[in-house]
């Protein structure tokens, strides 16, 4: 998704895939991967100083970022989650290359997380918008995500102009 979004948003934002920094030194699971999350917030803030917003693609829920000291570097963070039917998600995960290490227990954990996310997204602070991608081609999903980001950027521009 990050590659497709980069193409669509090239003139408006810097799109980043969080897994690029999923390296040994940042994989510490302590406190919801605090060091990893803090590093990403710092990087996004530095990118934003250049006048372009950062779009971070990856798995995260608001509580993992909102409580960090680095959160103060941003006026707002918006969250969008791509979700799909459980069977389709499991099939996609099983189809990934072996080096991605998607075992059955890990797939089950991901399905459980997705169920929890769908059930609680609207009550999170801030709320997470869900985009159901079941049966939707990847290119169309990327178009919809780019529209959502574009609307958010336009909203910020309108607010700044007032």
Automatic annotation (TrEMBL):
Organism classification: Bacteria, Bacillati, Actinomycetota, Actinomycetes, Pseudonocardiales
Record protein name field: Uncharacterized protein
Domain of life of the organism encoding this protein: Bacteria
Organism (species): Actinoalloteichus hymeniacidonis
InterPro entries in the cross-refs: P-loop_NTPase
């Amino acid at each position: 998704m990050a590659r497709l979004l980069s193409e669509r948003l090239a003139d408006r934002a810097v799109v980043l895939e969080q897994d690029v920094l999923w390296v040994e030194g940042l994989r510490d699971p302590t406190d919801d991967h605090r060091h990893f999350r803090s590093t990403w917030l710092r990087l996004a803030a530095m990118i934003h100083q250049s006048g372009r917003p950062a779009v971070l693609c990856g798995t995260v829920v608001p509580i993992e970022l909102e409580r960090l000291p680095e959160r103060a570097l941003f006026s707002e963070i918006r969250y969008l989650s791509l979700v799909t039917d459980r069977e389709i998600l499991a099939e996609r995960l099983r189809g990934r290359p072996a080096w991605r290490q998607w075992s059955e227990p890990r797939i089950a954990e991901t399905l459980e997380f997705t169920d929890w996310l769908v059930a609680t997204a609207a009550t999170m602070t801030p709320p997470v918008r869900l985009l159901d991608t079941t049966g939707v081609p990847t290119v169309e999903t990327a178009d919809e995500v780019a529209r959502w980001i574009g609307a958010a950027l336009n909203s910020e521009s309108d607010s700044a102009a007032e």
